[in-house]
Design a protein that fits this description.
This protein is of the alpha+beta class. Helix content is 13%, strand content 25%. The chain has a single domain, classed as Roll (Ubiquitin-like (UB roll)). Bound molecules: FE2/S2 (inorganic) cluster.
């Protein structure tokens, strides 16, 4: 099963393949605001496994995000592990 890892705390949680990461990554400490890709509260730096996440959304492009700097409310996990830290 895919896994999200908070690089700062070392805490990890399994997550269902193909699912949005929002609910699980919130439990790992990432704060959320609008949940629609507008406010930027949920910014994360992806340290490893960026190719295991879904493609950038238009909202992320509008906020100048890239594959290593995502909005957690916009990401789904495809497979594997993703190691992140809060931006
Ligand atoms: S929670 Fe507002 S951009 Fe993700």
């Amino acid at each position: 099963m895919p896994k999200l890892i908070n690089a700062e705390t070392g805490e990890a949680k399994e997550i269902k393949e193909g699912s949005e990461i929002r609910e699980v990554i919130e439990k790992l400490g990432v704060p959320f605001g609008c949940e629609e890709g507008i406010c930027g509260t949920c910014m994360i730096d992806v340290l490893e496994g960026e190719s295991n996440l879904s493609e950038l959304t238009e909202q992320e492009k509008d906020l100048m995000r890239d594959k290593k700097h995502r909005l957690a409310c916009q990401c789904k996990i495809k497979k594997g592990e993703v190691k992140f830290r809060i931006s």
